[in-house]
Amino acid sequence: MRYLISRRITQITVMALYIAAHVWGLKILEGNLSSSVLLGTVPLSDPYAVLQMFVAGSVITTDVLIGATLIALFYGVVGGRMFCSWVCPINMVTDAANWLRRKLGISHVQKRVYMSRNLRFWILGMSLVLSFAMGLTAFELVSPISMLHRGLVFGMGFGFSAILIIFFFDLFVHENGWCGYVCPLGGFYSLVGKFSLIRVKHNVDNCTECMKCKVVCPEKEVLHMVAKHSATVTMGACTNCARCIEVCDDDALNFSIRNFVDKK
Amino acid sequence: MSKEKFSSRRKFLLTTARAAGLAGIGALVWSSMLEESVAHSLILRPPGALPEEDFLKTCIKCGLCVSACPYDTLKLAAPGDHKPMGTPFFDARDIPCYMCTDIPCVPVCPTGALDEQSVTTDGELDINLSRMGVAVIDSSACVAFWGIQCDACHRACPLIDEAIIIEYDKNERTGKHAFLTPVVVNDVCTGCGMCEHACITEKAAITIIPREVVLGHAGSHYVKGWDEKDQERVKDATGATTHTELSKKSVLDNLNDDSEFY
After folding, report:
1. What is the complex's ipTM, to 2 decimals?
2. I need a labelling partner for B135 at 20 to 30 A (CA). Which of B1, B69, B129, B195 fits?
């Protein structure tokens, strides 16, 4: 449970700091996840949003460029999709939906809707094409992620409906549908974290093939080595959420630093 | 030609066509959503905002300007506000811009969507340079135009007697009263909205409207001959000759020609 609790604490703390900055003027972390200022000096920006702005033809300022580079470097080192499982507030919504889905056993009664894991990269590509063609930040203007983190700080409006759509989509339409298939920001961060250092490592000697990890993993493909051979999870799609580590009773999965040297 | 080869080629073509079709549907739905989301033209932006088209692609929707505003004037558009989502705006009737001299909302903008240069003269911030909109008076709803004395907007204007002036006229109806009517000087008005906020009518008779929506442009055809400065405005103007069916012949020939006019 410790990883789950740490993730919830990080997610809630980040949002609480934004809210505290806006409501009480506590200047630790101001703005929202699109762009913020840390301790009144360090700019931080969403590199995907900045990429859309650039493609749309906006003049990118030094502040934003530094901010986006810092964030990209950070996630490039610690694990691209750590944003998804440790920071993004949508994670709490989809985790809740998928927990309920497992409890209700919806996957057992439902015919599988076919979606490709690559859908998010198509959407990512299309967002850039549309940004270029229309001179607008295509995903930012419709993003339910921004609706939530912006709404929590600056007012939701009807943003709850978008969050409900994601909740019901994950609950009734497709397991891990939003985060695992649709979200282009997740796709973007999985590319950013392609060569990140912090990785889950599987030790097949301890594995009893209970496959609990595969049940709980939101990106099952990344655990392809489980019960087959010892290896590090190298796919960018892994969100480092540590759910597999937590369900493993046999100490067959653990965090480790990626070893570039003995790579075949 | 083996059957198998044919079917794999066919499969490839069909898969490609299907992918293209799905991408096309996605692009059409998504782009129409975007078109609708930015269709709102009557939106008031914070001071120093870039022209709307550039603003939309440059604003990262972080809300730092909103947090910086000490009067809670600025808001970020949420779903249901019918405005481009996440972008800052204000409703002047609700809370106008109170024209802080240090303009806290502008320098915090990380992307330059709020352009500090546009509200700076000689290295100093000058809020009077901002052009958030322009006040427009509905003279049929404004009670001053009825002959009832009211100068609420004039008094509320931070650029009193510059951006809103009072004109005097005789009230012929009574024969002994005067009309004291407010007139907006478009070149000076910043669009802060304090007039709209102060207006005493049930629905404001003076409203802030984005400048690009309401202001005209005389072009270079007309010049104020009595104003030397105005010559500057048209110094780069070039002549243009239009060619129509009528202009093929000389004017006299056209007038004397009994053929039908076009």
Report:
1. 0.83
2. B69
